[in-house]
Structures are given as structure tokens and as C-alpha cells.
Amino acid sequence: MSKCVSLPRRARLLAGSLALLLSSASSAQAASIDQAVETLIAPVSQFTSALIFFTLPLFGAELPLVVLWLIAGAVFCTVYFNFINVRGLGHAFRLVRGDYADPKDKGEVSHFQALATAVSGTVGIGNIGGVAIAISLGGPGVLFWMVLAGFLGMSTKFVECALATHYRRQNADGSVSGGPMFYLAHGLAERGLPRLGRALGRFYAVGIVIGCLGIGNMFQSNQAFMQFVNVTGGAEASWFADKGWLFGLIMAALIGIVIIGGIKSIARVTEKVVPVMALLYCSMALLVLAMNAEAIPYAIGAIFQGAFTAEGIAGGTLGAIIIGFQRAVFSNEAGIGSSAIAHAAVRTRQPMTEGYVSLLEPLVDTIIICSLTGLVIVTTLYYDPALTNGYGGIEMTSRAFERNVAWFPLPLSVAALLFAFSTAISWSYYGLKGWSYLFGEGRLGRNLFKGLFCTFIVIGSMIQLQSMLDLSDALVFVICVPNILGIFLLAPVIKRELKRYQRKLASGEILDHRARASLSPTTTSTKASDPANG
């Protein structure tokens, strides 16, 4: 009860702080609004990044401990679950297709909608701009380690999404709440660690709320605005060049219209937007690669050579590994636990099904889309070795596309806007569930959070790349600490449930509703009376 009473006061404090920030920015006479906000954010960004990405020197490279923690979690999940990232792919596709779906199951969205919502949260500007930054920092070799990180991350996704669905909570209004904060609290309580579980659950909830205001909206709106300015005349000629606030207001209004309806509204949008944006972007990338066909052997050679020699990169091969894994996690969020919040809303009685479905996230996000972006950039380097000099983030990727087709930056900007839009609406849900975990499920609290989220979209479009990148990285990486710890401690629960699920599947106790629907009308009519389902 005390949480509910204190909510308005905390919201007023947040609103007051935000108003002070905007007021300070608008009062700057010698600098633009954008520069004023950058001046305020940069020190916070530098301090936060230094704290979270604490490094140890190793073989000439600086090894961030948080990245090592994520790698350890991914390797553990892959080995402990006997390469479920390979064995489970076929079943994952059948689940997404709807073979085992029963509309009577509890939950709010279908398997495909849950996957689309989660993919929309991971397939964002990082797939376009983040890959370019990784290559500029670590050379072509980082792509090898990004793909490997995506492959291992599939196993991490399996565990965290299965846990989120297993420990989810049914609310009084019929909605569902799940995610790392719930499986940390309830799962560790089952293992005799209730205090640790509650503490880690609250820590994660606070982290996902703060993180969603960085990676989930500010970074997305920032990079989308940069691409929009680029295609409307550039920093010198575009009318929007100094009007990031206006771009942010428009984007915030569109996002607000969607998120006000909750997860069902978000899922209805993402299941349509995600396939369109993925098809648009992949088609453009494949066309560029076809035009750069003679450079593909060079690109493959540069990627493998750079992965194991990494000449000119600080720390050699280890430096390339660190950059590759860090960028992969920034893209697909495996080990962060964020997308598990969306997967927990699925309609199913078998939590393991959503573990299988989540395997497809890093496959689509990192192994396919990030690889295509990387290959476009590396093949362009064959013709233009200076591509990585002087450009940052999405602008570099845009230049690579533009070299082949002069008007490609325009559809690329459309894809970037869709990526940013879809990522923001998904992350609004993640942040909202963290907020509700801390303050309760009241309507007032939910609406206050949604307003705060949209406000930070405006702020994000007013901040320059470097501070935004550092802050986003830091805020999203910190929540992997409790999440990976929870995965280590609760993995035996999922292993037990997985064996149980596989026995039911093999015995036919879990029905293939798609196959039954293709049988005779008599057989189909008895389906509703059968209690077993997937």
C-alpha cells in the first residue's frame, strides 16, 4: 500500500527533474538546445560507463568484466542444454507457425506475436548503426565474433524466456506479467534464497526502467533523427538539422498512440511492422551484395583474418572478441533478459514452448540482419577503404548503401525509422513491467510511466551520438548481472521442465493442433474436448 501512496510523489519528482533539465537546455543562449542537453548528459554518461564497464588489462586488451560475465552465461547455457540452439530450431519454427497453438490457453498474445514483439525490441538502430561502429572500432574481424555471440546467445535466450514463462504471474484483470524480476524473486525463493531473490528482482526492475529510457528510446530516436537529417539535406542544408526536439515530438506522439493500448496493441503493430521492415532492409542489403559480388571473397577473407589476427586493433584478437561480443549483446540482448518480458505474455500452458520460440530471435537479429549489414560495409571497404574514417554509426551504413544506389539512403531511412519505432514500442512494455513490479499495476502509475517514456524520446533526438551510445550501453548492460546469476541458479529447473516437455511431446500428450485440423471433420470435432494442448 505504501508503494501506491508514494507513487504520485515520486512521479512528481521525476517530472520536476525533467522540467529542470529542459529548462536549463532552453535557457542556453550561446549554444543550441541540442548542445545544451549534450553538455548536461555527457558527464553522467562518462561516469556511468566507467563504473559499469570496469575493465582489467589482459594480453594488451582491456577486458570489461560485464562482457566476460555475458560470455560465461552464453557458453554455460549452450553446453548445459546440449546445444539446444541447434537441436531446437525445427521445433521452434513449428511453434511459430502455430502447430501447437490452442486459443483457449491463458496469455495475451500468440507465439508469433510474442516473437514479433521481442524481435522488434532487438532489431533496431543497433543493427544498422551499431554494426558500423563495431567495424570502425575493431575492423572486419568483429563480425565473426558477433555471429558467434549470436549463436551462443540463442541458448541464453532459451533459458531466460522459458524461465519468464514458467514463473509468470496472472493479474486480476486477465493480463500477464513476467520477466527476470519475477523468476529471480520466486525462483530463488523456491531454492531457499527469498531475500536474495527479492533484492535481485527489485534491482533488475529498477535497471530495466532506467535502461528502457536509454537503449529503448533515446538511442533509437537519436539515430533515426540523424538518418532523417541526412536524407533531407544533411547537417548543413536540412531544415531539421537543429530541430531534434520537433522530430522527437512527432515520434513520441506516434509511439504514444500505440503503447497506450498495452501489449495486445503493441503485438498487433509489431506482427505487421517486423516482417515488412525486415524484408525491406534485407532486400536492400542483398541487392547491394549482389552488386558488390566481386568483393565478397575479399570480405570473407578480411573477416576471418581480422577475427584471429586483428592487426592494428588494441589487444589483437582479444580486442576483436570483446568488441564483437559487446556489439552482439547490444543488438540481440541475450543475457539481458529484456525480451523475456514479452515472451512471458504468450498464450500457452507449456512454458518450454516459448523457450524454443525465443531461439529465433538472435538468429534473425544477429546472425542474419547484423551479418548482412556487416557484409555491406566490408564489401564497400574493398572499393572505398576510407569509408570508416569520418563517419559514425548509421551514417556510415548509409554511405555504404549510397555508393551502389544513390537513392538507397531514402528507403534506408524508412527502414531505420521503422526499426526505431518498433524497438521503442517494445521497450516501453519492458520498462512498464519493471515499473509495475516496483509500484503496482494501477492505471495512474502505468500512464505516468508511458508519459515519461515518450518524453525521453524527445530528449534522445536532441543528443549527439557518442554520449548517447555510451549511456545506452551502460544502462542496458548492468541488468545482465542479476539476470545471468539467476540463470546459473535456476538452470536445473528448466532442465527438469524441458525433459518433462519432451516426454509429453514424444508421447503425443501435447497435441499438434495443425495436424489434427487437417484430419476428418469427425476427428476435428472432438478436439475441443481433449484437455491436452501445447
Automatic annotation (TrEMBL):
Segments crossing the lipid bilayer: 40-59, 66-84, 199-219, 245-266, 273-292, 298-323, 359-383, 406-430, 451-469, 475-494
Localization: Cell inner membrane; Cell membrane
Signal peptide: 1-30
Keyword Cytoplasm included in the entry's annotation: no
InterPro entries per record: Na/Ala_symport
Keywords: Cell inner membrane, Cell membrane, Membrane, Signal, Symport, Transmembrane, Transmembrane helix, Transport
Membrane topology: Multi-pass membrane protein
Pfam families linked to this entry: Na_Ala_symp
Family: Belongs to the alanine or glycine:cation symporter (AGCS) (TC 2.A.25) family.
NCBIfam families named among the record's database cross-references: agcS
Record-linked PANTHER family: AGSS FAMILY TRANSPORTER, SODIUM-ALANINE, TRANSCRIPTIONAL REGULATOR, LRP FAMILY
Name the UniProt record assigns to this protein: Alanine:cation symporter family protein
Higher taxonomy: Bacteria, Pseudomonadati, Pseudomonadota, Gammaproteobacteria, Oceanospirillales
